[in-house]
Specification:
Keywords: Hydrolase. The chain is α+β, with helices and mostly antiparallel strands and about 1250 residues long.
């Protein structure tokens, strides 16, 4: 019953919304509900844990007599909701809100209606909406609330008239015949489930069987005044028009002191005769005792959690029934094909055994082999599935002599029925319905007289009466039954008419709401297809160092245009023409991208008939508008191969005391230009002769050594030399080698330390488009940084810039500005190196009690723009979070902070929101991530749950699909293996988010599996028990570890809040040991660079986890000689194969003496669950290379991604990004501890 409690987690947080200006957030908030589906019936939204309420409300709605009686109460009796706040008026809010909800469900064109107004009228808070409650308890409480609300109205007897019945308990004296009676009222009958086979047997034990008082247990008769023998019995005296039956599914095991759910078979009829259970009344018609089933509330899960949905008969034919897909397939006739085998019902042992025998050519099988065939057919043994209800298999065969024939020695069983039944055979013999109901002819899919539908929160699906049998037993079984008197007839005008007896004011309100929804859907469709494009106008740009840079202010060079992505490129071109009236000549629209070196052009949109969506344009895309040939008279290189690379050019400059110092300047060059062309350009800029310049590349970061490029490298391009953004080139004039600062030895140049290095450079730039000014300030280690800043301001003549309005900030090698230095300390104390460069920035300096923090938004710290914030170190986490939300323009309470770890990945959340930043050891320069989602309560974990997308519809429990199920389960190994070796992006695409669970750390793994199975995102996933489910822990969207030990606590499994898990259904139960590893094996195809499909291997590492033991296990698995078996582990992050051999051969003799026993679970292989092991059979395959063509392609892709990431980091620092506005979502609600259920009702007496 968790419903969509974690639905908000299914939406991925968007951390970077360039140019959206909040449009995406508004679109999501304003998204209207979808219209009704094909069945034309409306569901009810789950508020988090209200599936029990939804099921009961749908049952009441499809009880026409209840619905119409409620609609008959007008405003003159109930009042109006508009007067609810007026103290002098009487407004019965609960029945009014129930009327409005019923009208919406009947008439408003939306997939699901909301019950928030109704639950508000109950006085419920998030506790009731998010907590688990019992539907049987709700039924009694809701009826009591309605009775109290309708006091003094014509509907005061509504509940009593429709649902009230009486039971009479009698004790009859066997000596004098005196009868003692006691009458009891009921609104629902509570019947036992344990120890009975069905409803009729339970009613028989309650109302037919007598209890005798005899022996030591005698009864004192009031008439005889002595202890006598007596008989006690009960009968139904008055039957209500609608009989509600509550099944006691939940019991308490006093031996184990725990609750449990009865999951055994419990049959209930569609039509039942209650005369045997009632007092016999003369003249009563038979129709008064005939009742028909019209609603079944079903509970799926265990006694500590689950989900409710309801099967309902549509008495008024309000919905549009369609035959379920499996029903249609089963009725399609195929000419020329023999009669089908017996239908396999997974929950019916008779059907299972008949299907097994029918598949044999001799229609017989050995009894000792029957258990294995049952396991192969249903995926679980006979003892676990059927023994409790039907006994041993041999006994079951003996109990059905009309179906099975045993040999005289009992060793073999034969099927008596023929394989192809004749048309004369009855429906029971042909595997049809056992109730004698005639089957529809093949190909007939007409709507039944009273169709059934499955109402599962927002979803409504058609079903058949045969689906009712599936709810007799198991984790998903019937919990409440609703019968109506068979003699109750519906008027013809109510047939197919949802407006029947709905009050006029509710009709008008529903029609107005439907019109408003249609308007919002049309508006949403238009807004959701609108993208904002950033148009860079070519006449306002200039080409500099291989990249485009604005030559005008942004208001002139940049134009934002909102456009419908469904329109064509030609429409966009026409719109741009209209915006630029002065444009002359051709106009080309080219996709552009901002790089660290500047703006670069890629593909030009040439097909005017192509839509923007198919062209790949998304919200925030950059387009360059130009003539397609040149910018400001200079030709422009277009394409990915010529994108500019931002290099750091280092060259000698005049220093203090006449010594040569180094100055560093960023400069961009096309990646396809040769190094010789770079040399020519640098010679032109420095005014030097070409032959006098030397280009050097940084060789060793540990020491200041540079390698001179040889003449041959001058003919290579920058991409061939693997130069990328941020790389440094040293440019030396031949005369510079005469300086003491530089020393050349062969092709190596060493940069020495100048004799006088007591200085600091301070750089200042008032505008990103203008050049910067540099001041060299003499400094010592004891010089205060405040003095350095003041001298720099004076030297740069920034007299209008006060010292309190600016600060000094260093910069790292990636051009990222570091936190401001404290100015009340010396150069040495501030960690500033002499001869380095500080940047003068317009922001107040830091005090000794302040922290300078970076923060981003989203789940990926590297994806979104990085923002800055200065706070006091005594600020609490809650206050810091509030300040960040205000700066980002976000609202709501569903946010928390996480700290970025040392490798710039998302770390643990700052859960102690009332602790100060200093107490949590947050220091200046740390990066915090503003993450969406409220933190779970203390002691609880919030775990996102994923399902492999290819498995989403792969496992069903419907009859006739068992072979499909087996095939899907057999393919899971290959699919999981494919996900584990794929890239991060493709792995994420292969996973389907199905929801999240919030569970106590003290719960067991079995509880986690049970709770996962109740998620509404898994409606079609069916497994017999939690043992048939494998739970993976995901890292970077790849399976990396299997959770073991169903009885272990979640805390002992080392799961943190936010840990992502993925589920995998299995064909049989699994119980992996703590020392067992699950590996995927792939054998190489001889002579080809590819592999056969993967297989699973469970490897026991308890005795030996060395490479020799693994090779022996694999060789034994494939019957190969170990010395001819070559194995390697696949590393998906690098698309690299790592040959597995004894690592002791690769260490020194000294280390051998100290090393521990070899283990592949340690360095360097770190073998774990889900790892892929490649296998080469050297007997038939001499190629020892494990790599494939796919691996080479992935390596090249990873290299390009690394280059792009480096460029994007440089761009994020060097050029100020626009403020991104993250998508806003409605505030999330946390689960609360379970509280007693109640409904608040006013006093109307």
């Amino acid at each position: 019953m968790f419903g969509d409690l974690f639905e908000e987690d299914a939406v991925a947080f968007v951390g970077d919304c360039k140019g959206s200006n909040g449009k995406k957030s508004r679109v999501k908030d304003a998204e209207p509900p979808p219209p009704r589906g094909a069945v034309t019936l409306s569901g009810i939204k789950n508020q988090g844990g209200t599936c029990y309420l939804n099921s009961l409300l749908q049952t009441l709605l499809f009880t026409p007599e209840f619905r119409e009686a409620l609609f008959s109460l007008g405003p003159e009796e109930l009042g109006t909701l508009s007067d609810r706040d007026k103290p002098e008026t009487t407004v019965r809010v609960i029945p009014l809100e129930l009327q409005r909800l019923f009208a919406r469900l009947l008439l408003v064109d939306q997939q699901a209606a909301s019950t928030s107004d109704l639950t508000d009228s109950f006085g419920w808070s998030s506790n009731e909406e998010m907590s688990q409650h019992d539907v049987q308890e709700l039924n009694r409480i809701l009826f009591s609330a309605l009775e109290s609300s309708l006091v003094g109205t014509s509907g005061s007897d509504l509940i009593n008239r429709l649902y009230h019945g009486t039971v009479v308990n009698q004790i009859v004296c066997r000596e004098c015949g005196n009868t003692s009676e006691r009458q009891e009222d009921f609104l629902d009958l509570t019947v036992a489930v344990k120890g009975v086979s069905g409803l009729e047997e339970a009613l028989w034990s309650m109302f037919v069987e007598e209890e005798l008082f005899e022996g030591n247990n005698l009864y004192r008769c009031g008439a005889c005044s002595k202890l006598v023998t007596a008989a006690k019995s009960a009968k139904l005296r008055k039957l209500p028009p609608f009989l509600t039956v509550s099944l006691l599914r939940f019991n308490f095991d006093f031996a184990r002191c725990e609750r449990y759910k009865e999951m055994g078979s419990y049959a209930f009829p569609i039509r039942i005769d209650l005369r045997p259970f009632c007092e016999q009344v003369a003249g009563a018609a038979d129709s008064d005792y005939e009742y028909e089933l019209f609603s079944v509330i079903i509970h799926k899960g265990g006694c500590y959690g689950g989900h409710y949905h309801v099967y309902i008969k549509d008495l008024d034919r309000l919905g549009r029934w369609q035959a379920p897909e499996e029903e249609i397939k089963s009725k399609v006739p195929v000419s020329g094909v023999r009669a089908p085998d017996p239908i396999l019902e997974m929950g019916d042992p008779l059907s299972v055994l008949k299907a097994i025998l029918a598949q044999e050519a001799s229609l017989s099988v050995r009894v000792d082999q029957l258990g294995q065939k049952v396991m192969e057919t249903v995926g679980v043994s006979w003892n676990k599935r059927f023994r409790k209800s039907h006994g041993p298999v041999c006994k079951f065969l003996q109990q059905h002599p009309t179906v099975f024939l045993l040999d005289s020695d009992g060793s073999r069983v034969h099927l008596k029925q023929s394989r192809a039944p004749s048309p004369e055979q009855g429906p029971q013999e042909r595997g049809g319905q056992g109730d004698g109901t005639p089957e529809e002819p093949a190909g007939s899919h007409s709507t039944p007289p009273h169709p059934w539908f499955d109402f599962n929160d927002s979803s409504v699906q058609p079903i058949t009466e045969r689906d009712m049998e599936k709810q007799f037993q198991g984790k998903e079984s019937a919990y409440m039954l609703f019968y109506r008197r068979a003699g109750l007839q519906r008027p013809e005008e109510a047939r197919g008419n949802p407006r029947y007896k709905v009050p006029e004011h509710l009709l008008e309100e529903a029609e107005a709401e439907s019109r408003e929804l249609q308007r919002k859907r049309a508006e949403f469709d238009s807004v959701s297809n609108t993208v904002e494009l950033r148009l860079h106008l070519g006449p306002h740009y200039r080409l500099q160092h291989g990249a485009l840079h604005p030559a005008s202010p942004p208001q002139d060079s940049l134009l934002r245009l909102a456009f419908d992505r469904r329109k064509s490129v030609g429409d966009l071109r026409q719109a741009v023409y209209q915006l630029q009236d002065s444009w002359e000549g051709d106009m080309a629209l080219t996709v552009a991208k901002s790089l660290p070196a500047g703006l670069h052009l890629y593909d030009t949109l040439t097909d005017d008939q192509q839509s923007l969506h198919s062209s790949g344009l998304v919200d925030g895309s950059d387009l360059f508008v130009w003539n397609g040939r040149e910018v400001c008279g200079e030709p422009v290189r277009v394409g990915a191969e010529s994108q500019p690379v931002l290099l750091s050019i280092v060259c000698p400059a005049g220093g203090v005391g006449g010594e040569a110092l180094l100055s560093e300047t960023p400069q961009g060059f096309p990646a396809d230009c040769r190094l010789g062309e770079v040399c020519v350009e640098l010679a032109r800029q420095t005014g030097s002769e070409l032959g006098e310049l030397l280009l050097c590349r940084w060789e060793e970061k540990q020491s200041p050594r540079w390698r001179v490029y040889p003449p041959a490298d001058l003919h290579k391009t920058l991409s061939q030399l693997t130069l990328c953004d941020g790389d440094t080139l040293l440019v030396l004039h031949s005369q510079a080698l005469d300086c003491s600062l530089f020393t050349r030895s062969g092709d190596m140049v060493t940069v020495g330390t100048p004799s006088d290095c007591s200085w600091l450079q301070v750089e200042y730039s008032s505008h990103p488009q203008e050049g910067s000014r540099v001041a060299t300030v003499p400094a010592e280690g004891d010089t205060l940084l405040s003095e350095i800043k003041q001298k720099a301001i004076e030297e740069l003549q920034l007299l209008d810039l006060a010292g309190s309005d600016c600060c000094l900030r260093p910069m790292d090698r990636n051009w990222k500005l570091l936190p401001p230095v404290r100015e009340d300390v010396s150069v040495r104390e501030g960690g500033v190196k002499l001869t380095s460069t500080l940047f003068l920035c317009p922001s107040p300096p830091l005090t000794n009690t302040q922290l300078f923090l970076y923060y981003t938004m989203g789940s990926d710290p590297q994806a979104g723009p990085e923002m800055e914030l200065v706070v006091e170190e005594s600020t609490t986490v809650r206050e810091c979070l509030k300040q960040m939300l205000e700066v980002a323009g976000l609202e709501g309470e569903c946010w928390h902070l996480r700290k970025v770890d040392w490798c710039y990945e998302l770390g643990d959340p700052l859960s102690e929101e009332d602790a100060s930043l200093a107490e949590l050891q947050v220091s200046s320069g740390d990066t915090l991530v503003l993450t969406e989602g409220r933190l779970p309560p203390k002691g609880f974990l919030k775990l996102p749950v994923w399902l492999f997308a290819s498995l989403r519809n792969g496992v069903h429990s419907e009859t006739g699909r068992d072979r499909e199920k087996e095939t899907e389960l057999n393919n899971i190994t290959e699919q999981i293996c494919e996900h584990s070796i794929s890239t991060v992006e493709s792995s994420e695409a292969a996973l389907q988010y199905v929801g999240g669970v919030e569970i106590s750390g003290e719960a067991t793994l079995e509880d986690l599996k049970t709770q996962v199975l109740t998620l509404p995102g898994l409606p079609d996933l069916w497994v017999p028990s939690p043992g048939f489910l494998r739970v993976w822990v995901l890292e970077s969207k790849r399976p990396c570890r299997i959770l073991r030990g169903n009885q272990l606590h979640i805390n002992s499994l080392k799961l943190g809040s936010g840990t992502e898990i993925a589920i995998q259904p299995l064909a049989k139960e699994e119980n992996l040991g703590l020392q067992e590893l699950l590996l995927y094996l792939q054998v190489g195809v001889p002579g080809e660079r590819q592999y056969y499909p993967a297989e699973e291997l469970v490897w026991d590492t308890s005795k030996d986890s060395s490479s020799r033991a693994l090779r022996q296990a694999i060789a034994s698995h494939y019957s190969l000689p170990p010395d001819k078996t070559l194995i390697a582990k696949y590393c998906p992050d690098k698309s690299h194969w790592m040959p597995i051999s004894s690592w002791s051969q690769q260490v020194s003799r000294k280390k051998k003496k100290k090393r521990q026993p070899e283990s592949l679970q340690g360095a360097p292989f770190h073998l774990r669950d889900g790892d892929l092991i490649g296998i080469k059979n050297l007997l038939i395959d001499s190629n020892r290379d494990f790599s494939t063509e796919r691996d080479n392609a992935e390596k090249e892709k990873l290299r390009r991604e690394a280059e792009d990431k480096k460029k994007s980091r440089g761009q994020g620092v060097r050029f100020q990004s626009e403020e991104a506005v993250a998508d806003k979502k409605p505030p999330a609600r946390n689960r609360r501890p379970e509280v007693p259920l109640s409904i608040n009702v006013g006093v109307f007496r």
